[in-house]
Every structure is written in C-alpha cells, then in structure tokens.
Amino acid sequence: MTPTHSSPAQSVDFDVLIIGAGISGIGAACHLKARRPGTTFAVLEGRDAIGGTWSLFRYPGVRSDSDMPTFGFGFQPWTAHTAIADGHLILDYLRRTVREHHLAAHLRFGHRVVGAEFSSATGRWTVTSRLAGDGRETTHTARFLFLGTGYYDYEAGFTPAFDGVADFTGQVVHPQYWPADLDHAGKRVLVIGSGATAVTLVPALAATAAHVTMVQRSPSYVFSTAAADPIARVLGRALGHRRAHRIVRRKNLLLTQGMYRLCRRAPKLMRRLLIARVRRQLPAGFDVATHFTPRYDPWDQRLCVVPDGDLFKAISAGRASVVTDRIERFTTAGIRLASGRELAADLVVTATGLTMSPFGKVRLAVDGRRVNPPDTTAYKAVMLSGVPNLVFALGYTNLSWTLKVDLVCAYFCRLLDHMDAHGHATVEPVLDDPDMARVPYMDLNSGYVRRGVGRFPRAGTRGPWRVETSYEKDAERLRNGPVADRALKFTARAPAARYGRLK
C-alpha cells in the first residue's frame, strides 16, 4: 500500500477526520463508507502503514489475546482456522478489509496529528499534523473528529529503573522496540514480566533459545485455550464464512462474557478452577502455588491467554522456566535477585508493560481553551463532556476490543443521521449533575492502568456517564437506544453558514 501525503491537489476539508489507521480507525472508515456513502472523510495516520499495534509490534510470537471472531469486525468475517492469531495474520486481515472496502484513497500516511481545535463560530475542527520526513506542519478541517488512537503511547513502552543496567554486557530489549536483526538462537534469555506479552514471548523464544526464564515479581492468571475452533471450522464449511461468522462471534461473546461474570461474582470458585487448570498442564510437583497463584482475584487484571497451553508445554519440556522474586540489580553477567540468586543471561527482554496515553497525545482545544482529558467526563464512553463534534473509540478491557469499536462506529453513524434529519450543526455532551461521583475510566488493577488512567477522561456513576463493561448494555444504548438525550446539546445549522454536508 503506497503511502499518501498531502499535496495541493488533495482536499483538506472533510465532513469527518479519523485519526489513526489501526483497527479502530479502519472500523470507523468502513462504517462510514457503508452506512453514509455521501460523507467525505479521511484517515490521518502518523506512521507509513495501517495496522496500529499489529504493524508496530514485531517481537517473536506477537498475537491476539482475544479470539479473532470477536476481535475481528462484525462486518468482515475472520476466515482463518486459528482463533488466537499471530500478528502477521491480523495485519493481513486488516489489509484485506482496507482493500475490499476500497479505503486506500481515504488513507493519508505520515501525518502525525499533534493538535486539534474546535471553533464554535464555524462549527469546525482545525487539525494540525506534523509530516513525516521534513517535519513541516499541515492542516485539515472537518465538522467531526473521530479518535481511533487507542490508549497507549506508541513512542514509549514502560521499563522500570533497574539498577546496574549499564553494567550488563549482554543486550537489553523492550518488546515495543524489537530489532529486526536480533538473533536469540542459542542464547540464554531472561524475560522480565508476567503479563500477556511475557507469556507470549517465552514459548516463542524457547523454540530456538538455549533456555528462557520468565522472571516475575508476582504471578498472573494464565488461561489455556484452543488455538483453533473446531465449531467455527464445521460451521464455515456448512454455512459459508459470513453466516458462520455471526454465529461463532455470538457464541464466543457469550462464553467470554459468561466467564468474566463468573470471575466477578464467584472469585474464590473461579480462582480454584483456574489454578487447577494450570496445575493439570504442568509436571507433577511443579510449584504452582509460587509461580501461578496470583495475589489478586480473577479479572482484577486481564487474564493472560495461551493458545494450546504453549507456555506450559515449553516449561514441561525444560526449554523454559519461571522464577518468582524481586530483581535487586543487573550485573555484568545477568540479574541478581533479592534472594541473592543470580541468573545468567545473554539477552534480557523487559516485557514490563506499556505506557498509557489518551487520544494519541493530540492536544485538544475548544475556542482557544485547552481540553484536559481528566477534567472531562465520558458520555456513553463515546464522547467527552464540553467537547463538541468529537467521538472516540476505546475498546473493552474485559472483552475483545473490536466488539466495542463496532458499537461506537454504529452509534456515530446514527448520530450523524440524527443531526442531518434535524438540521443540527453541532452536538456537545453537557454534564449537568454536579453531585454525581466521578470515577476512573477503567477499573482494572493492572500496573499500566494504575500508572496511566489518571491522564484519561473520568467516568460517571449514573445514567449515560457510566462506562459499561457489558456488551448487551452497550448494544442497547449505542445501537438500539434513542440518539436524542437531555445530556446532549444540539445547535441548529445557521442558514448562511457553509457547512459540509454529512449525508
């Protein structure tokens, strides 16, 4: 796909500007193309490729941690046999989506959006981008802004300040910056971390490394699931991919949401079941109590999914091991632990997490006033109080990301339809309940959430200001519920104003 940059011949004024060409931005573009064919839009992407996460992360074994029938789009069947897919397959799926929905002409690569300001006088956003290569700035204008930027910083993964790193004679790598030429074959590898990235890396590296040790301060819940779904395969053959996709997507949604609810309602029972499942997949006598028994309840943090138990197979085969301890410091030859034990290594991978960043670090302003996200409250988890004509997509943390994105995009199209039908120029959520408590947008206890959620919008505790973790509740209010709401302030289109048509 050839990168497209702005030129004098290209339009810079649109009905909708979509920021980000990852799974959220591509989803929004597809929904607009299908539901509102007369709406003009462009997708601004800072990098030179689509895919977001799936084109950025190149570490060994990178894969989804949700099943692909629900992580894929509702309108674009996932046709591969694997339910937990490698990153390159997901990227191929997104490229196919772009191709089949004829989005290439709408994509503008190398546009790193740095600021966006809304003018109430004109009813339009002015979006400032910094171009890749020469660094010059360019502007686009639009009536609506759709933020499909995800929730983490593409430029800065999280690495704790370890003592003695400079003394280490081997190589230290963060998964977010994996070198293309890194050869780990035959090396002693330490993977620091116990989250989704760590449990993905360990079996992938263990295939050719001399040995891989996962070094964790405390364990996470690790859940083994089948890499391929036999039911999906049978239904695909019998019904065709499109009809089978709807059934499998619904089936997987019900199973995942059912498991989440059980974990929240019966945490002690689910804790026993999850740990017993791990114990059955490891050699007799393995210290599960130390290495795979978390201190927190299930779904206080995301479950780490391993397809076909690949992590446990690597441990059982002796190619990988787990050490649970605190790191005291790096040494010239590896790492010294708080217990006094030293682990020798040629390569240390700091799978220590991501850095959360709201809205791609885009500076938002309304009529010259800077928008500070924590001062805003999320309306139906799609818009921000006090910010007109802006919709954002942040996926679920307890279900597949894209389930929420599809609902947000459907709501966005319904909102535009409503505004067209009633002659509205702008829409702005207004929080008129000063006594309502405001809470963090995400309720996970993961380290990356605790570190970064304070920079995000807040959630409310009543009505449309709640951030729901239930697909059914979101479907009711975003896909089926009325658009008109007393918390939304609409303004009429001035007869003399030359606003872009949204039909």
Automatic annotation (TrEMBL):
Entry keywords, A to Z? FAD, Flavoprotein, Monooxygenase, Oxidoreductase
InterPro entries from the xrefs? FAD-binding_MO (IPR051820), FAD/NAD-bd_sf (IPR036188), Flavin_mOase-like (IPR020946)
Q: Which domain of life is it from?
A: Bacteria
The record's listing under Pfam families reads:
FMO-like, NAD_binding_8
Cofactor(s) essential for the protein: FAD
Family, according to the entry, reads as follows:
Belongs to the FAD-binding monooxygenase family.
User: What is the official name of this protein in its record?
Assistant: NAD(P)/FAD-dependent oxidoreductase
Lineage of the source organism? Bacteria, Bacillati, Actinomycetota, Actinomycetes, Kitasatosporales
